[in-house]
Design brief:
The complex is a heterodimer. By secondary structure, chain A is an all-alpha fold. In chain A, about 30% of the residues lie in helices and about 0% in strands. Chain A is globular and about 45 Å long. By secondary structure, chain B is an alpha/beta fold. Chain B contains nine helices and 17 strands. The longest helix of chain B has 14 residues. The two termini of chain B are about 25 Å apart. Classes of the chains: A mainly alpha, B alpha/beta. Chains A and B meet through α3, β1 and α4 of A and β1, β9, α1, β10 and α2 of B. The complex binds iron/sulfur cluster (SF4). Iron/sulfur cluster (SF4) binds next to loops of chain B.
Chain lengths: ~200, ~350
């Protein structure tokens, strides 16, 4: 490995920096103890990205045949809070959204650079949209399982713990119950099972 | 065409749910795995922690190992990760601070924050997957983006990211975090359209963009980050290409690859097609010069989204097949082409009537 002290000035001389960027104190690279990367180290390694690239932005247009929910303008994962088929959710999921002013401008006549975009420079963690944590679904699933287990116990199919887990004994009970009630036998919680027990999944 | 959405029986969820579909006989490897319970002609039934749900309409496609995101109240699931594809891309925000003349995914005002879900989805991806991150401008949510990269890396160091960004929101304070990212696993794809600041700013619809971009690139360079510089060829920057090559090879020679790209006829690019599209099948001169300059100075140049037969033979080696599998098509005359295996073809939304004049089987 060649000396960094030798190479860095030569890089600077070679014009590796954008000319107008503020001057980089040489010590910044030299004194870096971080075992991470420096441009020097990276330059010596062969690149692994040769064909990684070439993705374009239009990655999520609504093009599939199942996109009726998201008619017009393609893209994204925003969704309607319409009533689900499986069961109505107890609370409406509020899409966390940060209000953001997109740059205005007449697109067809672009370039019209008169638009004065107001945009957040970064999303500050303090002001970022509150995060919906995933365990919410887990808690809900567990609650539904407990209701099913309670019903299975009451109907005489299940003697196990009401623990919110669909374990082997619970699966067996579900199979027996589904068989008796002429439901599709899956050994899992289906909308049929919930309907039969009158459990509203919310 | 490959479906990026699949019809499902909705689960009783209040929040977005990320789930990985296991193949026949494979057990759940985590709480986020759904086990395949039944295969019917047009429906597969899965068991997710004791709950049943069906996935429809996947007769011919393999979906084993795919990661879906279900949203409350929706009967279609987003296929976030297709296990068999190298073209998975997460669209992390639809907000953008630019308004590019050729934008294929025009920005929206609101941001739906699903970084948590994307983080989970990425950590369920197949071994060694390279996942695209796109927008909008991902760096508008820089904090969330960095957290995602770091969280995934902590759990799954084998996963890589290719992030499309205008690189204008880095500051010196980000240097340390950037340095800590694995430069072999994170590739920043950054657009630069001209070496003339006014031209670049005009094309992206944002005064001062070029200047901020220079700052951002210098920070990426100092961090030792891997850079894919992306230049879309347009009528507006056609004459600038050699000068841009000069700029790129003197100022940005740390880059991994300089991608010179053809236009994608969708979004604003479609609206502005006539003034923007540059037919490079008849006159390739400026690109040839740009590629020559970059190559002579030791840079790796590449041509993205060019049908192979539109490129002069001497430059065809620079043109890998780049159009994502799910949005690629070939035309009638491609049938007899011996290059079909190596050619990326056309975007689904390409129109031959307004497209390249000189094409034909090789
Ligand atoms: S004829 Fe079709 S397959 Fe052949 S090089 Fe042209 S675009 Fe590609």
């Amino acid at each position: 490995m060649r000396s960094r002290l030798f190479m860095i000035p030569s890089l600077l001389v070679a014009g590796f920096l954008p000319s107008k960027s503020d001057a980089m104190p040489i010590g910044e690279l030299v004194s870096k103890k971080d075992p991470g990367t420096s441009v020097l180290e990276r330059l010596r390694l062969k690149h692994i990205f040769t064909l990684a690239g070439h993705r374009s932005h239009s990655s999520h247009r609504s093009h599939s045949s199942h996109s009726s929910h998201r008619s017009s303008s393609g893209g994204g994962y925003t969704y309607r809070r319409s009533a689900p088929v499986y069961s109505p959710p107890s609370k409406v999921y509020t899409t966390p959204s940060t209000v953001y002013t997109a740059p205005a401008g007449s697109f067809a006549t672009q370039p019209t650079v008169s638009a004065t975009p107001t945009y957040p420079v970064t999303s500050d963690p303090a002001t970022a949209a509150p995060l919906k944590t995933l365990p919410g679904n887990t808690a809900k699933f567990k609650r539904i399982v407990m209701q099913v287990q309670t019903a299975l116990t009451a109907y005489g199919y299940y003697e196990g713990l009401i623990d919110g887990q669909v374990g082997p004994a619970c699966k067996k009970a579900l199979v027996a119950m589904q068989t008796d009630y002429n439901l599709k036998v899956t050994g899992t919680i289906t909308p049929d099972v919930l309907n039969t027990f009158g459990i509203v999944a919310n | 065409m490959i479906s990026l959405r699949l019809k499902v029986d909705p689960l009783p969820i209040d929040e977005p749910l990320v789930v990985r579909l296991q193949g026949p006989g494979s057990p759940a490897r985590s709480d986020h795995d759904a086990v395949l319970a039944e295969i019917a002609p047009d429906r597969r039934e899965y068991d997710l922690n004791g709950f049943s749900f069906g996935v429809y309409g996947i007769s011919s496609e393999v979906i084993d190992g795919d990661v879906l995101m279900m949203l409350p109240g929706e009967t279609t699931a987003h296929r976030l990760i297709r296990a068999g594809s190298a073209h998975n891309t997460l669209l992390v925000t639809e907000q953008c601070d630019q308004l590019c003349v050729m934008c294929s995914q025009p920005p929206k005002k609101y941001h739906t924050d699903l970084f948590e879900q994307f983080t989970l989805a990425a950590s369920l991806a197949p071994q060694g997957a390279m996942i695209g991150v796109s927008g909008g401008e991902p760096l508008l949510h820089k904090e969330r983006l960095f957290s995602m990269l770091e969280d995934v890396n902590a759990q799954r160091p084998d996963i890589g990211f290719h992030i499309l960004t205008n690189a204008q929101h880095f500051s010196r304070a980000d240097l340390e975090r950037l340095q800590r990212l694995d430069y072999e696993r994170v590739l920043w794809g950054v657009p630069l359209y001209s070496s003339m600041p006014e031209t670049h700013d005009q094309l992206v619809g944002k005064p001062g963009a070029f200047a901020s971009l220079e700052q951002g690139l210098s920070i990426l360079m100092r961090a030792g980050a891997s850079l894919e510089l992306r230049t879309v060829v347009m009528q507006q920057n056609w004459q600038d290409l050699p000068a841009l090559a000069d700029y790129v090879s003197t100022r940005l020679s740390f880059l991994t690859v300089w991608a010179i790209m053809q236009l994608e006829r969708i979004g604003y690019a479609r609206m502005n097609w006539k003034e923007t599209f540059r037919d490079t099948s008849g006159d390739f001169e400026q690109i040839a010069r740009a590629v020559d300059i970059a190559t002579a100075r030791g840079l790796k140049a590449a041509l993205y989204n060019f049908p192979l037969c539109s490129v002069p033979p001497a430059y065809q080696d620079f043109a890998p097949s780049t159009i994502s599998d799910w949005k690629r098509k070939y035309l009638d005359f491609c049938l007899n082409c011996r290059a079909k295996e190596t050619c990326g073809g056309f975007f689904q939304w390409y129109s031959q009537a307004e497209g390249f004049a000189f094409l034909g089987p090789l």
